Amino acid sequence: MTHMALWLVMACSTGTVELDPETVAAMAEAIEEAPDKADEVLAAEGVDRAAFDAALYDIAADPELTKRYLAARK
Amino acid sequence: MIRTLGLVALLAMPSLAADSGDLAAAIELPARADGLRKAGVSKAEVAEALAAARDKGLPADEAELVFREAEKEAKDKGPVDNFGAFVQARLDEGLRGRELAQAIKEEHARQGKGKGKPDDKGGKGKSPDKGEKGKGKAPDDGAGKGPPDDKGKPDDKGKAGKGKGKAK
């Protein structure tokens, strides 16, 4: 049980959650509309700030993912 | 007691606002990277700079700040050479956030790149084909293109475009 809890903490802290550009774009829209609920937006997708940042870095570095992300945003 | 609690709440407010502000900036990072690529910085250079920032643990909002400045400078003055390596080196020196953004701005000023975007008038004079047609000289002699530091400047554009053969 303790090991499982530890694994979950590590998984969250290393930002291993995979997010597609459309999901990140939807989260970005929600954060933009209600900045004070940003934590809830992240939690709803099961990611922390580090994982969200990692997803944004991944998208930014790839022109194709960037294109999808920007297209999914208003 | 109520006044104390109110004071504590007021002190806590800016930090909460800063967090949401950070995320609002962070979500613009892909757009900044896209703008930088459109301003003429290669895909590989942008990826290298992003990887360097990520490896150094820069939050996405801080990277966005740096890329915003780089995008603005690249659009105004053209891309700097070896952008990725430059960002990596400055990060290795310990520069972050506004200091790093300022270093990028200074590098643009130092390199003294031509004005305008690479696909506008400033870039036309750099084409070897244009140089050949205008001057009738071999493209590898550098005629009409000027020294590397001059490429893209308005003066070069005029000479190369007119093809009057005035350049050496």
What can be said about this structure in brief?
The complex is a heterodimer of chains A (74) and B (168). Chain A is mostly helical. Chain A has 5 helices and no strands.
Describe the structure.
The complex is a heterodimer of chains A (74) and B (168). Chain A has helices at residues 2-13, 21-33, 38-44, 49-61, 63-72. By secondary structure, chain A is mostly helical. Chain A has one domain (2-72). Chain B folds into 2 domains: 2-111, no CATH class; 121-162, no CATH class. Chain B contains 9 helices and no strands. Chain B has helices at residues 2-26, 29-38, 43-55, 60-77, 83-92, 97-111, 121-124, 128-135, 154-162. The N and C termini of chain B lie far apart (83 Å). Mean pLDDT of chain B is 69; it is low at 6-18 and 116-168. At the A-B interface, helix 2, helix 4 and helix 5 of A face helix 1, helix 2, helix 3 and helix 4 of B.
Secondary-structure map:
The complex is a heterodimer of chains A (74) and B (168).
Chain A (H helix, E strand, L loop, with lengths): L1 H12 L7 H13 L4 H7 L4 H13 L1 H10 L2
Helix pairs in contact in A: 2-5, 4-5
Chain B lengths: L1 H25 L2 H10 L4 H13 L4 H18 L5 H10 L4 H15 L9 H4 L3 H8 L18 H9 L6
Helix pairs in contact in B: 1-4, 2-4, 3-5, 4-6
